[in-house]
Design brief:
globular; five-stranded antiparallel sheet; alpha+beta; 1 helix; 13% helix
Length: 101
């Protein structure tokens, strides 16, 4: 197995109907994680998504992993699907606010 590279990207989603109300904003992280046969940060590693608290970025359970292997073409689509179905977040309208190492 290769070396793991764990880097999380943190996003902010402001629901359009309540964008001016900060208590409705959703902060979440997206991270490549170790798969059964793949180290994190590699092409086929699964992706993990989780809401995080502001301003500490501590995970708010549950943590969700993409099912199975995630390839280059399916990663974004799977992440958007999980964000919408399990978090109520439109990833396409989220703002990338930084990286956690």
């Amino acid at each position: 197995m290769g070396k793991d590279y764990r880097v999380s990207t943190v996003y902010l989603y402001k629901p359009p109907e309540s964008e001016s109300f900060t208590d409705t904003w959703v902060y979440y992280r997206v991270e490549s994680i170790r798969g059964p046969d793949e180290p994190s940060g590699t092409l086929n590693a699964p992706i993990q998504m989780c809401k995080v608290s502001w301003p500490t970025f501590v995970d708010i359970l549950p943590v969700t992993d993409t099912p199975g292997v995630t390839g280059r073409t399916s990663a974004y689509k799977q992440m958007c699907k999980i964000a919408k179905s399990q978090r109520g977040v439109e990833h396409e309208h989220s703002i990338d606010i930084g990286i956690l190492e």
